Amino acid sequence: MSTTRAAPYYLLASASLIALFILCLLWEWIIAPLRPGGSWMVMKAFFLLIPLRGVLKKDNYTMQWSSMLIWLYFTEGIVRATSDKLALSAMLAWGEVALSLIFFFSTIFYLRPLKKAAKALAKTKAAEQ
Known about the structure:
This protein is mainly alpha-helical. The protein has helices at 3-31, 43-46, 49-56, 60-83, 87-128.
């Protein structure tokens, strides 16, 4: 897969990470906070800002570790989607699950050709020795 074919995956990863940040921020602060007026759960949105810069700069290392970080949001989304009594909060949790999965798979598909190239290079170097 060429870099051009990987571009849509990068755009999808970036867009889903930004959308997940906005969703978490609005969910816990305005739309359906755990406590009226907002709660400390709003802080979970700010942890998404840590990888955002690297993802936007197409930093492969950041994209690799952020694809693991996103599983925390997926897990929280599943727990809240199945346990929250408020229907709106459960719907927002399913949105968190969906955005987490979109980010994970788009990141993996973006990084796939880079991983294949790195393996081929390592194989070539090993054969030369």
